[in-house]
Amino acid sequence: MKIILILKYTSLCLATIFIIFVTWFTWIGGTAYGYASYLEAKWIKDHPKTKGDLEKYLNLYSLHQIDPKTSMWGWHYELQPGERMMQYRILWNKNCPLDVVYDESDKIIHIYTSYE
User: Fold this and answer.
1) Residue 112: its H or E element
2) So what's the pLDDT on residue 69?
3) Which range of residues forms the domain containing residue 38?
4) How many domains does the chain have?
5) CA–CA distances in Å: residue 45 to residues 33, 49, 83
6) What is the mean pLDDT of the segment spanning 95-103?
């Protein structure tokens, strides 16, 4: 009887610790980072050339046009006429954006991943 009670409380403590860990990991952006890395492993093999090629891999991303100065890794890039920098965020999470420079025909010029 004592052993069953000890096992019951031990499993309850372990479950509580697991829930706390998952909550903390999600709060610090770890799940977004893991998801971004997972998707990058998929799209990088395909060597996307256009916006459409890349976006078929970007599930759960939001899209915003940004100034390169606000990019974590592409801040030094100077846009040429007809180019724009777009930022993809996983579930609107700002911790691991994907910044992409496109030309006027949506051809990819450069990709900056902040979670490298």
Assistant:
1) strand 108-113
2) 95
3) 2-113
4) 1
5) 19, 12, 25
6) 90
d(CA 2, CA 10): 12
Query: Cα(18)–Cα(9) distance, rounded to whole angstroms?
Result: 14
Rg (CA), the chain: 20
User: How far lies 62's CA from each of 5, 12, 35, 58, 79, in Å?
Assistant: 48, 38, 14, 9, 22
Residue 87 in contact with residue 97, Cβ under 8 Å?
yes
Q: What is the identity of the amino acid at 62?
A: S
pTM to 2 decimals?
0.72
With contact defined as beta carbons under 8 Å apart, do 110 and 70 qualify? no
Q: How far is CA 41 from the centre of its chain?
A: 12
Give the pair of three-digit tokens for residue 98: 């994907």
- Tokens 């996983």, located at residue: 90
